[in-house]
Amino acid sequence: GAPLRRMPPLMGTVGVAVSTGQYWVEYYSTLARKQDRLSGGDLTDARIPAGGTPGYVTFNLKGGVYFSPDSTLAITLENLSDEDYKTHGSGIYAPGTNVVVTYQHSLDIL
């Protein structure tokens, strides 16, 4: 009946995306419940706060453009509310609000 070590809480992602063909935009949130069902090892683990890992919600926005079927540019704004959070048992807090720019190009080699 004891909880497993570093057992993750209920987590998920919910969002909505809209595309107009060449352009697209997506809003999504990542959510995690508080994890306070701790094993004996969790209670002595310095990466897990006393009382358990707090739950969190992040708000994120992503958009991009398809230049061709093989080429995409995307810009993501993560953690818009600058939430201070970490994944249960990780010991590392996630970055605050940040921007990620991604360019992807696929090559058909064969």
Question: Can you walk through the features of this model?
Answer:
The chain is mainly beta. It contains 1 helix and 5 strands. It has a 5-stranded antiparallel sheet with strand order 1-2-3-4-5, with no helix packed on it. Strand 1 and strand 2 form a beta hairpin.
- Which spans have pLDDT < 50 for at least 5 consecutive residues? none
Distance between the termini: 54 Å
Largest sheet descriptor: 5 strands, antiparallel
- Average pLDDT, rounded to a whole number, is 94
Strands side by side in the biggest sheet: 1-2-3-4-5
Structural class by secondary-structure content: mainly beta
Q: What string, H for helix and E for strand, traces the elements in order?
A: EEHEEE
Gyration radius, to the nearest Å?
19 Å
Percentage of residues in strands? 35-45%
